[in-house]
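User: Hey, quick favor. My workstation is busy. Could you predict this chain's structure for me?
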Amino acid sequence: MATLGNPTNTIAVLQKYQFQFQKKYGQNFLIDANILEKIIDAAGVCSEDCILEIGPGIGTMTQYLCERAREVVTVEIDSKLIPILKQDTLVAYDNVTILNEDILKVNINTIVQERNNGRPIKVVANLPYYITTPIIMGLFESHVPLDSITIMVQKEVAQRMQAEPSTKDYGALSLAVNYYAKPQVMMTVPASCFMPRPNVDSAVIKLTCYDKPRTIVSDEKRMFDIIHASFNQRRKTLVNGLVNAAGLNITKERVLTALEKMNLPATIRGEALTLTQFAALTELL
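Assistant: No problem, here it is.
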């Protein structure tokens, strides 16, 4: 079993199995051992942890996780990678479970109950760019017991996750992440650290999950519907965004009354509101 995390061993495994990269799965494998060590450190992986890894690829980061964690559950959608993982790169580890599944369809709560007695798990992953947001939101919205989510994502997505109000990167993703967790960009990772090389640089961001959401709102879904409507057309005022949103059924008068009660101008845009203000607006509407 070759230790992965360098180009030579990665190429050897890919050639042995005649593996072809699948563009539809956004496959880019890390080939920098130093970065891998830093990700494991950033995630704070220790011998008590149960780790959920999403998209292990050929098992590069999985090897590092297995060395540090008590147990690793890894979910890979590409069936062509399963033989490589089971028969080769992870064969030496008895603390790993390999699932050939789509992470968006996996019942993660079941994994938490069966593998970690219902205690919070840590998620560590090098996420495919095209599906980053659905995966993160799926984890949060399923209310799985989570300690933290440490993920490699496109650099600009990481910037959006920790953006502040009234900045160009601030949007629905910033608000959703901040509702559930404290985001912190741990490092940037150049495109040269991957095979094949992606078109953009990446960043590792750690989302440290709150025990309960940061702000109290009686209807979480309603709040996020309002948030999404507020950012659908960024240059429009908040009033226009909400009134024109299909399915919200909010009149202009109601929005203006709510803004007045909050001492906010009628011309305000969604990008100026904080999470707490969106929660207050939701209650008023």
